[in-house]
Amino acid sequence: MIIAGLLIFGDEAALGEDVKNIIPIDDVIYEVDNKSLTNRPDLWGHYGIAREIAAITGRKLKPLYVENIEKYNDLETLNLSVEAEDENPLCLRYSAIRIENVTKKMASWKMKVRLYYCGMRSINLLADMTNYIMMELGQPMHAFDANKVHSINVRTLREETDFVTLDEEKRTLDKGVLMIANENEPVAIAGVMGGLNTEIEDETTSVFLESANFDATNIRKTASKYNLRTDAAAHYEKTLDPELTKTSIERFITVLKEEDPDIKVTSAFSDIYLKRYPHIVITIDKDYIDRSIGKELSMEEITTTLTNLEYGLKVDGKVITIDVPSFRATKDVSQKADIIEEIARIHGYDNIEPKTNLWKVAPIEKDPVRELEYSIKELLAVKYGMSEIHSYVWYSFELNKKLGIKVEDNLKITNGIVKEDNTLRRDMAPTMLYAVYKNIKYMPEVKVFEVGRTFDYNFDLKNAIEHKVLGAAIASNNKEEKELVFEAKKMAQDILKINKNISARFINRENIDKSWMHPFNTFDILIDEKYVGYISLVHPKISDNINAKTSIAILELDVDKIGSLAKNNIKFKEVSKFQTVTFDLSLIASSDVKYDKIENIIKSSNMKYLQEYSLIDIYEDSKKLFGKKTYTIRFTIYANDKTLTKEEIDSDREEVLNSFKQNGIYINE
């Protein structure tokens, strides 16, 4: 006993005797660097660790000596009941037995010292016993005073209830908390902590011993909610093996008899087993094991390893049928990969020599469309300061109606998340206009883009064809529409330059078939005369519905088409060694002459040395030019084999001027 800090021994201790002969405090510490401990419920007990060490070192695991409780089957059974509302009960198994004539009150020095080394303090014999078995096997147990507990009912609380736990704290428990009840009186929070009303006292001589298995998730939530982080809860959270409940009772009786030989078991082993984990059988081939590990192991090493880890084995040639033991089948070992890991870790990962792959490793060709998509996003975000959005692939019926956008010909869906959002989009423009509408009221300028999916279909009962399309919108309360159109065109040109400097034509669209397109200022984008997108001012009615002060330009580009064209559009030509010549022509034409007509005239002219041309400026002033407008075009000419003479330069210049004159277009003097 301990009095005022002094440890008092009985007459059996001789004067001057070494205290180590009386108290077994000599100890050896083995440090196990085992990072998988947290995820391995079988390693939360010393016997599980011993099993691992035996397998690693090739030593035989000592048997666990337990009481044969079958000999008590003729005794009366305890009154147990477990309420379960469905096939996933919160209590998977509840086992119990009654033990009487417990005469000793304190545990032996051996047990006290072992608990102390495990970080636990000694309380009394029965409480120490439950902790001792939990440390040894990993199975929490609880000892009730059998004079206070006569029958057990495991159930959830029907209403909010006050309950005093063993730490003498009064807690208000919510409806639905799983409890252990003595008939109808709660005596423990299941799997977390017992109640003060049934604690073991100095006068206790009979014990109602509980060994149960509870739903891991429920225990974790309960312990966290009421800030009761007990050792029992920490074990139950790991999904323990329900088969342990019986083994732990058998072991408890064995050890208790060593401490107090005169105890008596006065009931049969009483058990309610509501949910069993499935029996897992895995069939694996030795060749598969060798390929996965990268090293050929002998069949003897494989079978010895698995046998030492207590797997059941049946070998047929190179095929091994494996019975997974229950203590590894709760959530750990379920497939071939788990068996490979078991064999490899016992063999030792550092004993496996790294080898190169047997197949040829070569870089794969990058997807041009994916590369183009990323480059477009980077260009628009960095150079043009645009914001990327991520939207749904269906239209908003309410917003379309409010803004005046018509999409009646689009495909309808019957199971949309929102009933009104029932139309798959064929174009990105409405999505861009939604973003402008929702943001322009808060800022003077909105610049948004998205590379998203659109759906093309002909209502021919065939699948819709998906396209990856860039949609972009520039909206401003300060800039003129003309400025926005040219900015959108510059964006399109920069995007096309990403992929091998593709050039495109921008021509006025004659057939306006979308409700948001401007009737005059809509331009198709053509590459090698193939349509890849368009630029358009937004129709005045829709623009006014969004914001009467706002100018809006829309750009759409078919990213799939551009990506496929780029792959085959690479053209090479020799760089001229001779001087290039550039000159500008300022042309005056009728106001109804479109730029595509200017382009057609240039292409049809017989300029011998023309290499490229570009539009520099368009100027319109109805008063100064009397209803006409001017185009400024820059021409670049050269030859690959000589320096052009003045006569050759003038000849090409006169050739294109004559072509313009024949079409009623003259040089602006």
Which terms would index this structure?
17 helices, BirA Bifunctional Protein, domain 2, 30 strands, seven-stranded mixed β-sheet, alpha+beta, five-stranded mixed β-sheet, Alpha-Beta Plaits, 3 domains, Phenylalanyl-tRNA Synthetase, Chain B, domain 3, 669 residues, single chain
Word description of this protein:
The chain has 669 residues and is an alpha+beta fold. It folds into three domains: 19-30 and 64-273, Phenylalanyl-tRNA Synthetase, Chain B, domain 3 (3-Layer(bba) Sandwich); 368-568, 2-Layer Sandwich (BirA Bifunctional Protein, domain 2); 581-667, Alpha-Beta Plaits, CATH 3.30.70.380. It has 17 helices and 30 strands. Strands 18-21-22-26-25-24-23 form a seven-stranded mixed beta sheet, with helices on both faces. A hairpin with a 2-residue loop joins strand 16 and strand 17. Helix 8 crosses helix 9 (336-347) and helix 10 packs antiparallel against helix 13. The longest helix has 18 residues, at 481-498. It starts with a strand and ends with a strand. 32% of the residues are buried.
